């Protein structure tokens, strides 16, 4: 069966008919509720917070945020972003409590730095892996999304993105884009190797009062470890050793262009190779 994101861009696929069908389906409501509660469990918020709902659709997850029991840290305030005008129109008809913004996640997250305490996304970010024009690329869209999301979250915040990767390549592309934007990242899979498998990308923003430290737990309790500083120093050493026009220099420039959404030629064994003089 074809995946929806392979058929049309989300703003066209979720027209009035599809949006209403999605919202009124009891099966989808139950699945959405289950995944939203799982995301909240991973966020581990202890008090009412301001949450950004990425790809909020008709507000199914937002309703859960608004109605969450105080014993579980709620209720939360939330702001929802979605590219489908039809989905947001249904959310308005349902009179959801959150504020709504019509926007394309692939163009970035347009909020002030540090605006949100946390973020969730349910079944949305796999759509960013499909570019609908020659002027954009999946890598560029993912880069703009994760860079904007990182900036919009306060230090020490978490984000949980549930998504359906098409394959291992897409799964890796999404997680690597998050890491390049500065996030600490871990992937959790519920019911692996079954048709009900659910993949969650758990992201942390460094600094602040993040409980438990690094999301992977790999460096917790180790003295003298500063992962971000080590990465930065390594990048600085690599950059200093690059000669303009060398293969490493060309590859780095291409990566910069991809992050800006430009389409570049793929690397090959000839990239950066110097031509021999004929005379």
Rounded radius of gyration (Å): 21 Å
Sketch the major β-sheet: 7 strands, mixed
Tell me the strand percentage band.
15-25%
Sheet with the most strands: spatial strand order: 3-2-1-4-5-7-6
What is the arithmetic mean of pLDDT?
Answer: 83
Shape label = globular
Number of strands: 7
- SS-based class: alpha/beta
* N-to-C SSE string, H for helix and E for strand: HHHEHEHEEHEHEEHH
| Fraction of helical residues | 25-40%
Q: Termini distance?
A: 59 Å
Low-confidence runs? 208-231
Fold and architecture overview:
The radius of gyration is 21 Å and the shape is globular. Helix 6 packs across helix 7 (168-180). It has helices spanning 10-13, 16-24, 26-43, 60-67, 85-93, 138-152, 168-180, 227-241, 247-259, and strands at residues 50-54, 77-82, 99-102, 116-122, 153-163, 184-190, 198-204. With 279 residues, the chain is an alpha/beta fold. Residues 208-231 have low confidence and may be disordered. It has a 7-stranded mixed sheet, sandwiched between helices. It is built from 9 helices and 7 strands. The longest helix has 18 residues, at 26-43. Helix content is 37%, strand content 17%. Strand 4 (116-122), helix 6 and strand 5 form a beta-alpha-beta unit. The protein starts with 9 loop residues before the first helix and ends in a 20-residue tail after the last helix.
């Amino acid at each position: 069966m074809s995946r929806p994101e392979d058929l049309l861009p989300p703003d066209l696929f979720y027209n009035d008919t599809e949006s209403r069908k999605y919202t009124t389906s009891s099966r989808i409501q139950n699945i959405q509720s289950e995944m939203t509660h799982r995301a909240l469990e991973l966020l581990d918020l202890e008090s009412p917070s301001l949450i950004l709902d990425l790809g909020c659709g008709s507000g199914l997850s937002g309703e859960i945020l608004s109605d969450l029991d105080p014993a579980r840290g709620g209720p939360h305030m939330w702001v929802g972003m979605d590219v489908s005008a039809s989905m947001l129109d249904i959310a308005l008809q349902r009179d959801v409590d959150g504020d709504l913004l019509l926007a394309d996640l692939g163009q970035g997250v347009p909020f002030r730095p540090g605006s949100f305490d946390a973020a969730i996304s349910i079944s949305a970010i796999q759509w960013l892996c499909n570019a609908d024009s020659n002027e954009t690329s999946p890598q560029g869209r993912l880069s703009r999304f994760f860079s904007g999301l990182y900036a919009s979250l306060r230090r020490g915040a978490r984000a949980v993105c549930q998504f359906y990767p098409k394959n291992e390549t897409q799964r890796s592309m999404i997680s690597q884009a998050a890491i390049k934007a500065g996030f600490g990242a871990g992937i959790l899979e519920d019911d692996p190797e079954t048709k009900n498998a659910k993949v969650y990308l758990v992201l942390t923003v460094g600094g602040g009062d993040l409980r438990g430290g690094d999301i992977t737990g790999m460096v917790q309790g180790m003295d003298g470890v500063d992962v971000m500083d080590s990465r930065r120093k390594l990048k600085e050493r690599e950059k200093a050793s690059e000669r303009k026009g060398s293969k490493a220099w060309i590859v780095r420039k291409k990566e910069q262009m991809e992050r800006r959404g430009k389409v570049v030629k793929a690397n090959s064994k000839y990239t950066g190779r110097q031509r021999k003089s004929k005379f």
